[in-house]
Specification:
alpha+beta, five-stranded mixed β-sheet, Ubiquitin-like (UB roll), 107 residues
């Protein structure tokens, strides 16, 4: 089963293991990862699961859709090229060990 590594703003890390097919927001919420809220439950309507994907992983992700790109404009932290909504990142064996950085704040 693939691992996801969530890095907190203070540098602490939490590794969560889950089955492929789950989105990273649900994995975070189910494992009580601080800073990932997921108010909309993954319906792509709240942007409270904003993360910064580690540079080693950004090219391995599916391209961002227009709805996700629009929601990144309303995150509490300034989006960067590494910004994604983790509800749109589906865990797979190919993403085993993915590292995402949790922003200091979410809306």
């Amino acid at each position: 089963m693939p691992d996801v590594i969530y890095v907190q703003p203070d540098g602490s890390r939490r590794t969560c293991t889950n089955e492929p097919g789950r989105n990273l927001m649900k994995v975070a919420v189910e494992n009580l990862v601080p800073g990932i809220i997921g108010e909309c439950g993954g319906d792509l309507s709240c942007a409270t699961c904003h993360v910064f994907v580690d540079a080693d992983w950004t090219e391995r992700l599916e391209p961002m859709g227009a709805d996700e790109e629009s929601l990144l404009d309303v995150t509490s932290e300034e989006p960067t090229e590494a910004s994604r909504l983790c509800c749109q990142i589906i865990l797979s064996d190919a993403l085993d060990g993915i590292v995402v950085h949790v922003p200091e704040t979410q809306r």
